Fold:
Amino acid sequence: MSFQRCPQSQDGGHSGRKVRSKEELEHLNQASEEINQVELQLDEARTTYRRILQESARKLNTQGSHLGSCIEKARPYYEARRLAKEAQQETQKAALRYERAVSMHNAAREMVFVAEQGVMADKNRLDPTWQEMLNHATCKVNEAEEERLRGEREHQRVTRLCQQAEARVQALQKTLRRAIGKSRPYFELKAQFSQILEEHKAKVTELEQQVAQAKTRYSVALRNLEQISEQIHARRRGGLPPHPLGPRRSSPVGAEAGPEDIEDGDSGIEGAEGAGLEEGSSLGPGPAPDTDTLSLLSLRTVASDLQKCDSVEHLRGLSDHVSLDGQELGTRSGGRRGSDGGVRGGRHQRSVSL
Structure:
């Protein structure tokens, strides 16, 4: 049952990855097109900004050469006007923060009033919920009070700065009235160019943000495609048929033994020698084979000869007829006797002399 459902899940997963890869490719192409378009617009905006900047500098230099020294004399006045305008904007922001702090303080006081009414509703029993709400509202009132006082002090500070800046503007206007009148065209032209440059600068900044966002989407789509590709490769590697884990069949009779067969034959010989020596020791004293004199060639020859048999049941009887030093153990021990007193002969017995 599970074998029949497995191909369906594989097909579903494959189709799902195919759809995802198609969507990510579309996102990648869209992001690439958007990057190209927005970068072209960004190049044009930067070129326009540089052109306006150069043009404004050229016109202002021309205007300044015509007006002469009155521009430098009137410059402190226009600088004071700029500072007064900034101080006025800061005063407005501080006033908004102070109004917000006052509203929060009033709301927190109303919450405290409601919590007190809830606590005092039942004098015989103290409700922990209302008590917790009252504590929370009290903390909010304290925080709002601190914020209100902080906003009030900040508003007073910036208001004083604004008043000082306006007073300086009035004083300079009285002192530099003539220079201010003569240099007015220069500073008005400068203000116009400054406003135009600020607008183009804001446009350049917006286009740079759009390019950054498009590149981010491009990177995300590319990363998703890489992940899908890695999943596909991992699935292909995991889908390869595993190597068989069962026992390997031995070579047929008459076939030459390979390296792996030789290793198996060596292990079989060791087991056969152990079994034969145990049986020989139980039957009687006999000359034990000297294993130190065995050579690798002799072991491989015996292993190759044993692999030609179609059964391995003869290994137990092999030690009765084979001696690795050229002597037959069967003749010395007199043969194995079973429970019936007869001589037990092994199947597929071979007499091998090295």
Remarks:
- The chain has two domains: 15-235, 259-284+293-333.
- The CA atoms of residues 32 and 255 lie 66 Å apart.
- The chain is about 80% helix and 0% strand.
